[in-house]
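quick q for whoever's on today - can somebody do inverse folding on this one?? i tried earlier but teh output was garbage lol. tokens:
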């Protein structure tokens, strides 16, 4: 039973809730969401940069967009590492083998 309680408290700590007027935005698995948002931005920079390369006057801007996309590709492993190595409050009642990593490797 304590294993279930520990898993529930772990899941609740991985939830971010934002209030927007009468609505609520609930984000679960924030590292996964951050990784997906980062991937979308990478694709956006590379697509826009590729289109800009068709116009000689936009080549300078296209090069910067490719640089931004490349930097974000370096951020991807940082997000994965942050998800794997997470600093949390020490609770002596939690057994180390009760904590299960249920996430995906992004």
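ok took a stab at it. sequence:
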């Amino acid at each position: 039973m304590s294993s279930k309680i520990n898993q529930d408290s772990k899941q609740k700590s991985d939830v971010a809730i934002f209030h927007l007027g009468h609505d609520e935005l609930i984000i679960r698995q924030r590292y996964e969401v951050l990784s997906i948002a980062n991937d979308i931005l990478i694709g956006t920079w590379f697509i826009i940069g590729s289109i800009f390369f068709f116009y000689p006057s936009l080549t300078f801007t296209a090069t910067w967009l490719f640089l931004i996309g490349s930097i974000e590709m370096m951020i991807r492993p940082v997000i994965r590492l942050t998800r794997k190595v997470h600093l949390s409050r020490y609770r002596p009642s939690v057994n180390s083998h009760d904590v299960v990593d249920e996430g995906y490797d992004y």
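fwiw The chain has three helices and two strands. also The chain has a mean pLDDT of 78. so keep that in mind when u check it
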